[in-house]
Amino acid sequence: MSTEPLLAVEDLQKTFGGLVAVDGASFQVEKGSVVGLIGPNGAGKSTTFNLITGFYDADDGSVRFRGEEVVDEPPEERAQRGMVRTFQITRELTGMKVGQNMRLGGQSHDGEKVVHALAGSASDREAEIGERAEELLKELELWELRDEYAGNLSGGQRKLLELGRVLMAEPDLLLLDEPMAGVNPSLTDDIIEKIHDLSDRGITFLIVEHDVDMIMNISDKVIGMHQGRVLTSGPPSVVQDDDELLEAYFGGEV
């Protein structure tokens, strides 16, 4: 049986002017796992996300997805392969209704795995998009809000909507950038539950999150970064006691 990781990052490098943002980062994400990426402010987490997904060009290094090099591919080609991301600041269209936003997600990732790849007429594809959008809206408990403008949603509801939009692409690897940012604590458990449910169905997650306790509780593996470098990687029980990472945060316990 193949043990090749779904995502393999090797010696990734990125500088902005004289600032080294990512300094030789290397790690792997195994298929079907939930992997957390943590570190103090300025550790290079978001830049690493942008390099993996193609929103920044790497100065050097390798990003392999399903064994194939993608480091020079633009974001849309990586999305077509099944690598899709969210953003720390949600990107829903506030002037459009929730249902319209969700259907748009099925039209934004034009890859083999999405409903646009279905043979048949445009009307058939639109019907399939509508059915998929309805299914996800109900699953994410947003169905009753389908005719509400996205700009009127709470922070947590917007996060759920963005999650639904990227799920329209039927990704293999879902990269979540600060999924708990701006979320009312009452909705935090809902988002965690959805991540668990999706993981159980085979979706692989790489999550950047400042809430270290949440990452330790939800992840199979945690990667700790500081000053652009990977300090540690392993099970949460090991990473949470890593001396270098603890020192990088507060000079003590995370």
UniProtKB/TrEMBL annotation:
Location of the ABC transporter domain: 7-252
Signal sequence, renumbered to the chain: none
UniProt superkingdom: Archaea
Alphabetized Pfam families for the sequence: ABC_tran
GO MF, one annotated term: ATP binding
Annotated keywords: Amino-acid transport, ATP-binding, Nucleotide-binding, Transport
GO biological process: amino acid transport
Its biological purpose: Probable component of a branched-chain amino-acid transport system.
Family: Belongs to the ABC transporter superfamily.
UniProt name for this protein: Probable branched-chain amino acid transport ATP-binding protein LivG
Source organism per UniProt: Halorubellus litoreus
Organism classification: Archaea, Methanobacteriati, Methanobacteriota, Stenosarchaea group, Halobacteria
